[in-house]
């Protein structure tokens, strides 16, 4: 008896319908991006900051989705990789005076390297065992950060100077950081979509759904699982670096087990095997704890927990994972009679 | 040498707590393929019930029995009301539900009983025995754990309900065809797990003191113990829990300052798992193509 992390399969209907669906999709994407660009000018500084954090969490959750949703490997330790990215950026800026935007590539590199290193022993573990190994990582992160205090500043952490927007642009610091996060998020989504909808992504999914069949078809399981780990942690580390830049402060307590669990919850609420779900997850991580606090300051986490239960009962595949196939069906049903999946036949 | 043995025995006392909770985790995992992250917080809540009863003037062991009964009932209700709706949902949805349950229990306990740390009475006197190798309290904790294990073993081995529960866990479809009410067996399993957790909570509370976050660390060590022994093996859970207790104690005493105790203990456990990926007593999962 084996339960599967179910994924909504992308329905590509007949070519004509596919074109229309594509048209709709592009209209939707342009509309969303236009709103995202206009939004910061309509909101207060604090709300802009909150939305920036939503996008940062979305990038981190996107990383986790690649690993858990598409490759079937669970991680309770992504807060650790988030911290790795954050401290990479903080140490580079603080000790070596590196400009903030130049810290993102090294953070990505370190995230990828750590992920691959971690992914190698993880090859031997499945299900709850992998959960334990990654849980250990999440628990060790604050302890290690405190222990190596010559680099990390120990308990006090590191204070950073928030970057200034380029002069002459006429926007303030918070809105500038918002746009940086937006650009990185859009890039991340584009890259993730390219990876996941291509050969590599199909290999990830094949390994998730049937490791033996995948291996029999010639997919190098070990290579792709490690690659999934590295790609996933790359995204999360970049998100961590962005968070350090935007908040302007890093300290061990900010990267506890709770952060890792928040990522997993955000991922499940949005829809683990989706890209758009990451954004929903970002909103959940950023706003639901505050909302819960507004509803009841006596037991806010009980409200947060109830919200988790409610989402899982009504949408067990996550918001996007449950609603997206329904939307597709809604649009496709009017155009075609036979919405049978047609797969392109390139590669695996 | 004397100190070394002392550390081993106090490690065993802590380990028997981890072993109990690990056993609760294994029971639920075997029945439903689910790691119940709320197990520790459920145990914490049970301990608060015991605390309330003792403070109301009941004798300790009577309060303990009432707590066990209440926990059994509570566990069954949780399975019926909270877990059943996600029975056929993706695994991650069920995991998130247990994490949500963890938060709810923790928050509600803090709300009702406040986050102040409370003293919890120990049923055992605290006197050194066996040439100061261990205390009567440690001995009592280990004794209660052993008694519970023997009772559980007898229950699963010699009673019809125990047999039915094993059948329901091993092969739900066939069990149902034999007329076993699988759903009810799952509920009883959750009730038993809650009872075992309650025992662990009541035993550990005099040492750790009672507060809503008391079981967080215990759950993590229990989880490690369960996996070290093999998540599918009840005996493994007990042995794993004991090993984790002793390792944690020895690492803290001899190897490294307590700052990195958790990290080193976990690194050791993972090292073992690298060589035995299904735990010490676990069986490899065989997949059909």
List the helices and strands and how they pair.
The complex is a heterodimer of chains A (348) and B (289).
Chain A: H1 15-38, H2 45-71, H3 78-96, H4 104-122, H5 127-147, H6 149-152, E1 158-159, H7 173-196, H8 199-209, H9 211-216, H10 221-247, E2 249-250, H11 257-270, H12 277-295, H13 300-314, H14 319-333
Antiparallel strand pairs in A: 1-2
Helix pairs in contact in A: 2-7, 2-10, 2-11, 2-12, 3-4, 3-5, 3-10, 4-10, 7-10, 8-10, 11-12, 12-13
Chain B: H1 2-32, H2 39-55, H3 60-83, H4 91-113, E1 128-129, E2 134-135, H5 136-158, H6 160-170, H7 172-177, H8 182-208, H9 215-229, H10 234-255, H11 261-275
Antiparallel strand pairs in B: 1-2
Short account of what is shown:
The complex is a heterodimer of chains A (348) and B (289). Helix content of chain A is 70%, strand content 1%.
Describe this structure in words.
The complex is a heterodimer of chains A (348) and B (289). With 348 residues, chain A is mostly helical. Chain A has a domain at 43-285: ABC transporter involved in vitamin B12 uptake, BtuC. Chain A has 14 helices and two strands. Chain A has helices spanning 15-38, 45-71, 78-96, 104-122, 127-147, 149-152, 173-196, 199-209, 211-216, 221-247, 257-270, 277-295, 300-314, 319-333; strands spanning 158-159, 249-250. In chain A, helix 4 packs antiparallel against helix 10. The longest helix of chain A has 27 residues, at 45-71. Chain A is globular and about 50 Å long. Mean pLDDT of chain A is 86; it is low at 1-13 and 337-348. With 289 residues, chain B is mostly helical. Chain B has one domain: Orthogonal Bundle (ABC transporter involved in vitamin B12 uptake, BtuC), CATH 1.10.3470. Chain B is 74% helix and 1% strand. Chain B is built from eleven helices and two strands, in the order ααααββααααααα. In chain B, strands 1-2 form a two-stranded antiparallel ribbon. In chain B, a hairpin with a 4-residue loop joins strand 1 and strand 2 (134-135). Chain B is globular. Chains A and B meet through helix 5, helix 9, helix 11 and helix 13 of A and helix 4, helix 9 and helix 11 of B.
């Amino acid at each position: 008896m084996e339960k599967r992390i179910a994924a909504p399969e992308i329905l590509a209907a007949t070519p004509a319908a596919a074109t229309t669906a594509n048209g709709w999709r592009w209209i939707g994407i342009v509309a969303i991006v236009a709103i995202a660009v206009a939004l910061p000018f309509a909101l207060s500084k604090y709300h802009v900051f909150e939305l920036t954090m939503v996008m940062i969490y979305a990038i981190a959750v996107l990383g986790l989705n690649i690993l858990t949703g598409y490759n079937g490997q669970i991680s309770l330790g992504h807060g650790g990789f988030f911290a790795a990215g954050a401290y990479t950026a903080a140490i580079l800026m603080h000790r070596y005076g590196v400009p903030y935007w130049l810290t993102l590539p090294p953070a990505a590199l370190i995230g990828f390297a750590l992920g691959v290193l971690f992914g190698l022993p993880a090859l031997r573990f499945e299900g709850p065992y992998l959960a334990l190994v990654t849980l250990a990582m999440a628990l060790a992160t604050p302890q290690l950060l405190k222990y190596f205090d010559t680099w990390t500043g120990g308990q006090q952490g590191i204070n950073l100077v928030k970057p200034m927007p380029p002069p002459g642009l006429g926007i303030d610091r918070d809105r500038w950081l918002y746009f940086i996060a937006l650009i990185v998020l859009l890039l991340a989504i584009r890259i993730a979509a390219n990876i996941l909808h291509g050969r590599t992504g199909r290999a990830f999914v094949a390994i998730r759904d049937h490791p033996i069949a995948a291996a029999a078809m010639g997919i190098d399981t070990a290579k792709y699982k490690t690659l999934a780990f590295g790609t996933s942690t790359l995204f999360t580390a970049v998100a961590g670096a962005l968070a350090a830049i935007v908040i302007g402060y890093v300290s061990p307590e900010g990267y506890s087990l709770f952060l890792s669990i928040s990522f997993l919850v955000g991922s499940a609420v949005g829809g683990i095997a989706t890209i758009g779900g990451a954004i929903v997850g970002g909103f959940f991580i950023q706003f639901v704890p505050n909302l819960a606090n507004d509803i009841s300051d006596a037991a806010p986490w009980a409200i947060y927990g109830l919200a988790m239960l409610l989402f899982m009962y009504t949408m067990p595949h996550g918001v996007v994972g449950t609603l997206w196939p329904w939307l597709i069906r809604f649009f496709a049903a009017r155009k075609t009679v036979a919405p049978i999946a047609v797969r392109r036949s390139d590669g695996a | 040498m004397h100190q070394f043995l002392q550390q081993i025995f106090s490690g065993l006392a802590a380990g028997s707590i981890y072993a109990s909770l690990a056993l609760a985790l294994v029971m639920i995992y075997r029945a439903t393929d689910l790691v119940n992250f709320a197990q520790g917080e459920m145990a914490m809540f049970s301990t608060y019930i015991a605390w309330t009863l003792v403070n109301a003037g009941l004798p300790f062991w009577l309060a303990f029995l009432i707590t066990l009964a209440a926990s059994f009932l509570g566990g069954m209700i949780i399975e019926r009301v909270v877990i059943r709706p996600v029975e056929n949902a993706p695994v991650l949805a069920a995991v998130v539900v247990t994490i949500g349950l963890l938060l709810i229990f923790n928050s509600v306990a803090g709300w009702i009983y406040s986050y102040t740390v409370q003293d919890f009475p120990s049923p055992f006197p605290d006197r050194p025995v066996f040439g100061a190798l261990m205390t009567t309290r440690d001995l009592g904790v280990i004794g209660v754990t052993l008694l519970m294990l023997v009772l559980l073993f007898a229950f699963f081995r010699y009673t019809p309900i125990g047999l039915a529960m094993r059948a329901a866990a091993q092969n739900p479809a066939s069990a149902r065809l034999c007329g076993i009410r699988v759903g009810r067996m799952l509920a009883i399993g959750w009730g038993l797990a809650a009872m075992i957790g309650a025992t662990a909570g009541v035993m550990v509370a005099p040492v750790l003191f009672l507060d809503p976050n008391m079981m967080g660390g215990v759950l993590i060590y229990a989880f490690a113990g369960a996996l070290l022994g093999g998540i599918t093996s009840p005996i493994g859970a007990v042995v794993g829990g004991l090993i984790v207790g002793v390792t944690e104690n020895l690492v803290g005493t001899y190897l490294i300052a307590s700052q990195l105790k958790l990290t080193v203990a976990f690194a050791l456990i993972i090292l073992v798992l690298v060589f035995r990926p299904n735990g010490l007593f676990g069986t490899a999962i065989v997949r059909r193509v």
